[in-house]
Write a structure and sequence with these properties.
With about 500 residues, this protein is α+β, with helices and mostly antiparallel strands. Helices cover about 55% and strands about 10% of the residues. It has three domains: about 230 residues, no CATH class; about 100 residues, P-loop containing nucleotide triphosphate hydrolases (Rossmann fold), CATH 3.40.50; about 80 residues, 2-Layer Sandwich (Alpha-Beta Plaits).
């Protein structure tokens, strides 16, 4: 018989899974899209295809990120509650703390959506933070008040009741649209009636009022999982717990798939089938992490994920362990220049501060090959200029290779030896920057003359205003600029070229 281990107050597997989810919350999906672009094989392209939300019905990996986070918050609560009760907190104090935390998240969601601008007519009241706050809050209140059997019954009642309401409660202004369509769903009708301000999808909000109800079930599934892991029972080993979680996930998946035949899997509506299917995924992911990390004890690989919730100083210290050529002096120089508070936690930082931390790791790592996705996002013009200076300095001194994804094109032009332009996942071109600019021109004049002058050239982004016309051309090898025509020809900078090639279709 396997010897039962004493569970730690804080599961390392849970921290790692949270970090895994935070990776995607913080934009990790762009890495897989970049890999699919650089290595356009079926494997990477299939993964990249999962890095976007589905339009309506259906499920992609990107749709699991939000519910997994709520599920993880649910797992944590049984451990947190045990700790609070161990400190002698009264039930009343616990209830107040739960409500305060839930309301705080709702308020922060409002602030994030622009509450402090005081433009209430255009304020979006619903938010991801609000759904997390309300879903977790109600689930936590139920957890404190009732035993697992009553909570299981409530969970089933929530999911079944939500389905019946969505399927059979008529929507007066649906105009004949089906109950699970964008125009005809009950969620949208309730949002239009009771949710003030702006709705994210115009006719409904994917984080609106009624669709928050099944999100409570998502949080409760997490709490059931945490409660199960905490359970102490003779003969119930950690391996047995994992097997039971795998079985529970299988049951959730089957129920969800069968339910989807009459109630489609839809994240925006947070349908009951969606709760079950994503619940299965969440249970299996936690079971996998728990088994590998806490049962088998394979923990070293988790550092990448666990550091996401660390303080800046701990994060940078951990990063230094991964890079044998880590330049501590450069890291300290950058910390001082950016005026970073190294005691602040990574997951509490603003977008600009996160960019600073990313830059420090990228430069101080001294890695031979470095990917940087929007490295200057959130930085002011002074800090951006400083970064470009340090980047060029590092490149000149070491010859390191930097691959940079950015939308601030003109600022970064001088940094680029090669440029790759991507639109809708399709690579439009990959070329030496200087050679590309030398063959890029803007031709304008009378429409018929422009057409004559640019015949036989690679043409892009044609614009017509009255009798006048302008077009972007790219010279092919051996081609010269058009001569003998009454047109204006101007060279293009990289930003204008990007607009011409990747701008919105007319």
């Amino acid at each position: 018989m396997e010897k039962q281990k004493q569970q730690p107050q804080r599961l390392q597997s849970l921290d790692a899974l949270r970090g895994f989810d935070m990776l995607f919350i913080m934009g990790g999906a762009s890495l897989f899209v970049a890999l699919a672009t650089l290595f356009p094989n079926p494997f990477f392209q299939a993964i990249a295809g999962q890095m976007e939300h589905v339009e309506w019905n259906g499920l992609a990996h990107h749709d699991t990120i939000f519910p997994l986070f709520l599920f993880i918050a649910g797992i944590s609560f049984p451990f947190s509650l045990e700790k609070q009760r161990g400190k002698g907190m009264t039930e009343g104090a616990i209830y107040k703390k739960i409500v305060r935390r839930g309301i705080t998240l709702v308020f922060l969601g409002l602030v994030y959506n622009g509450l402090l601008s005081f433009e209430f007519d255009h304020l979006r009241c619903a938010s991801v933070l609000a759904r997390i706050g309300l879903g977790w809050m109600f689930a936590a209140l139920l957890f404190v008040r009732f035993g697992w059997k009553v909570r299981a019954g409530i969970t089933v009642l929530i999911l079944v009741g939500y389905w019946l309401a969505m399927a059979f409660v008529p929507v007066p202004d649906a105009g004949g649209a089906g109950p699970f369509t964008l125009e005809g769903n009950l969620v949208g009708y309730i949002d239009r009636l009771f949710l003030p301000g702006r709705l994210h999808e115009t006719v409904f909000d994917p984080e609106g009022l009624f669709s928050t109800v099944p999100a409570i079930a998502t949080a409760m599934l997490g709490m059931f999982t945490g409660e199960w892991i905490k359970l102490r029972k003779e003969g119930l080993t950690d391996r047995n717990k994992v097997l039971c979680l795998v079985g529970a996930g299988a049951v959730l998946l089957i129920v969800g798939l069968l339910w989807s035949l009459v109630f489609p899997i839809n994240k925006k509506l947070w349908t009951s089938s969606f709760v079950c299917v994503v619940g299965a995924y969440s249970v299996w992911m936690f079971a996998l992490f728990f088994y590998i990390i806490d049962v088998l004890g394979w923990r070293k690989w988790t550092l990448f994920f666990t550091v996401i919730g660390m303080k800046v100083k701990d994060y940078l210290k951990t990063a230094s362990y991964y890079y044998p050529d880590w330049d501590q002096a450069l890291a300290e120089e950058l910390i001082k220049k950016f005026e970073l508070n190294t005691k602040q936690r990574i997951n509490k930082m603003s977008k600009g501060m996160l960019s600073m931390v990313t830059i420090i790791v990228a430069l101080a790592s001294k890695a031979d090959f470095t990917f940087m996705d929007e490295p200057v996002a959130g930085l002011d013009v002074v800090m951006r200029d400083y970064f470009y200076h340090k980047l060029m300095e590092e490149y000149t001194e070491t010859g390191r290779t930097f691959v940079i994804s950015t939308h601030i094109i003109e600022e970064a032009t001088d940094l680029m030896e090669e440029v790759v332009m991507i639109k809708n996942g399709e690579m439009l071109l990959k070329e030496n920057t200087q050679e590309l600019l030398e063959r890029s021109y803007h031709v304008s004049g009378l429409a018929e003359v422009v057409d004559q002058a640019t015949e036989g050239y690679e043409r892009h982004h044609e614009e017509k205003m009255g009798r006048s016309k302008s077009v972007t051309i790219l010279l092919k090898e051996g081609q010269k600029l058009p001569e003998g025509y009454d047109v204006t020809i101007q060279p293009l900078n990289l930003e204008k070229l990007f607009v011409s090639l990747c701008g919105m279709e007319e």
